Amino acid sequence: MDNCFEWLKGVAVTVCDREGNILDMNTTSAVVNSHGNKIIGNNLFDCHPPRAAAILKDLLENEKVNAYTIEKKGVKKLIYQVPWYDKDEFGGLIELSLPIPFDMPHYVRG
User: Looking at the predicted structure, is the pLDDT value of residue 80 above 90?
Assistant: First the structure.
């Protein structure tokens, strides 16, 4: 698979199939998630603790979106996991991990 996510500098992008097999990741994701070693071909369930694996299983089985924030090494990040589709067929999940400010404005637009 040609990596089309390299232009997203600073945003980690990881793509998995319906079984949780990692299909693609950009360089930022490889650095953040595998210490510089690409883990393409591995399964998400092999590198997540049971609680996280159960959440991922639910997302994959029910084609759901999951969004939350984390703080790691003094950096706050938004984690956004969303289904992807090939035409109408569910393909798996895309995870975006991007740094966000600790104090971020929120606007309600109408």
Answer: yes
Specify burial of residue 5 (Cβ count, 10 A radius: 0-12, 13-18, 19+).
buried
> Whats the size of the chain, residue-wise?
110
Q: Under DSSP, is residue 43 helix (H, G, I), strand (E, B) or coil? A: strand
Contact 13, 29 (CB under 8 A): yes
Lowest-confidence pick of 2-11, 63-72, 74-83? 2-11
Q: Is residue 1 pLDDT above 80, yes or no?
A: no
Cα dist from 40 to 16, 21, 28, 99, 106, whole Å: 9, 8, 13, 23, 36
